[in-house]
Amino acid sequence: RACSTLLMVMQQHNVKEEQMLYAMGEMHLGAEGDALTLQMQAVV
To answer: What digits encode the pLDDT tens for the residues 11-31?
Structure first.
């Protein structure tokens, strides 16, 4: 049960962090972020 609770809390935390981090990344990288995304997708 403790493991399930930890997993749920971590998932909720990640959703909140991702909302902030993605927005900050887009704001600071601008057009450079688009080029970086394309480069990263080419690797995958």
So the answer is: 999 999 999 998 998 899 988
Q: How far apart are CA 8 and CA 40, in angstroms?
A: 29
Long-range CB contacts (within 8 A, 24+) of 2-9: none
Where in the chain are the domains?
2-43
Residue 7, token pair as written in the block: 């997993």
Place of tokens 């900050």: 24
Cβ pair 25, 32 in contact under 8 A: no
Provide the whole-model pTM: 0.50
Identify the DSSP state of 44. Answer: -
Q: By the 8 A CB rule, do 36 and 29 touch?
A: yes
